[in-house]
Amino acid sequence: MLTFRVLVCLFCGAFTGATVHGVNLNAFSARQRLREQRPDQLQVHQQEGVSQSKLPLPEPFTWKYPLPLAEEEPKYPPHFELKSPTTPNSVTAICGDNTVQVEVKKDLLGIGKLVQPTDLLLGDCSATREDPESQSLIFESELHGCGSQLLMSDDSFVYIFTLTYTPRPMGDSPIIRMTDVSVTIQCHYQRKHDVSSGHLKPTWTPFSANMAAEESLHFSLTLITDDLQHTRASPEFLLGDMMKLEATVKQFHHAPLRVTVDSCVATVVPIVDTVPRYTFLGNNGCLFDSQLTGSSSQFLPRTQDDKLQFEVEAFRFQQENTGVIYITCSLRATAADSPVDPTNKACSFSNGWREASGRHHTCSCCDTDCGTGSKNDLTGSEGICPDRGNRAQAAAAAAAYSVG
Q1: In this predicted model, what pLDDT tens digit does every residue of 108-129 receive, in sequence order?
Q2: DSSP H or E run through 104
C-alpha cells in the first residue's frame, strides 16, 4: 500500500511540472515576438492610443417621446343618418271648468319599457284608474287639488300641476334602468272679457207709496267699494274678484228696522224665471255659494240693523259669454228689536254655518228648510202698515262684470 501511493504522487508531480514548463515557454515566445517588431509599427500603435484619448465629448441627449397619433373621424356607411332622441307624446291633459284630467302612457319614455303605476304621481296624488286598452294611467283632480299652484296675471288664471316619475330598483337589486321624469302641466283660463254695461240701476220701482212719511219704506241694493264706505262707480269685475253688495232700508219717522236678504238669483237676462239661473242665496238668508262651490262668498259682520253687507265671488255661466250677469234679490225688513230667528237671519258657510250677528244657532236649518217669513207685525206709535212693513220686498238687477 505504501509503495502504490508513492508512485501516484510521482506521476502527478511529473505531469504538473510539464504543464508549468509549457506555460513558461509560451510567455517567452510572446516577448520575443514583440522585440522583433519594427519600430515604425510600434509607433503607430502608440499614436493611435493618443488619438483615442482626445476624442470629443458626446452631444446632449435629444430624444423625445413621439407625438400621439391623431384621432380618425368615424366613418359611417353611405346614407347614414345619426338619429337624435325625440320627445315621446305620452302625456295629455284636458282642463275642465273645475277639474283637470291627465292621461299618461305607461310607456312614458317611448322606449318600450312600461312604468309601474306606483312610481308615477300627479303632485301628491296617485292615478285614479287605469285603461288596459290604451295602456294608460288616468289622473283626475280638482283645479285646487293634488298640490297645484295658482298663478294670476292681469288677464288669466294659470293652474300648474307637476307629474313626476321616480323609478324604484328592480326586484331585490340596487339598479334601475329608467331615469327620473318631471312634466309640468298648465291649465290657462281667461280672466278678462270685453263688456259694455251701464251703472247698476234697479229694474224695479222701489216700494214707496203715497202715504205719510212715517209709513214710507225705501229698499236699495247697491255695489260698494272694497272699503265698504262708498257706492262703487264701475259695475265691472274680473273673475276672482269679490263683488261687495249692500242691502239697506231707509227708515224715516218710525221704529228702527232690521233688513234681511231672503234670496238672490243670478241670470243672464233681467228676468228671474229664465234659464240658466243660479240661486246662490235662499232659504230665508242662507248664502249657499260658498257651500256649493267652495268660494269665499259670505255675509259681512252686521254693524247696523238697517244695513246688511255681503260679498260674492265673481262668476260666469258656462255656456253664456255675454259678459253680463243680472242678480235679483228679495229684501225684507222687520222690527230691529225682534229676535234673530231661522226666518230672519244672514248665514254664511265656512267650516259650518255662521250668522252675521253672531247668533249661529239660527243657521241650523240652512241644510233643510227654514220655513216661511215671519208674521210679526210692525205696529207701534209710527203706525206702519203690518203687511207692507214686514213683507215689503225689493228686486234689484246687479251689474255686469267681466268674465273669462
Answers
A1: 888 888 888 999 999 999 999 9
A2: strand 99-105
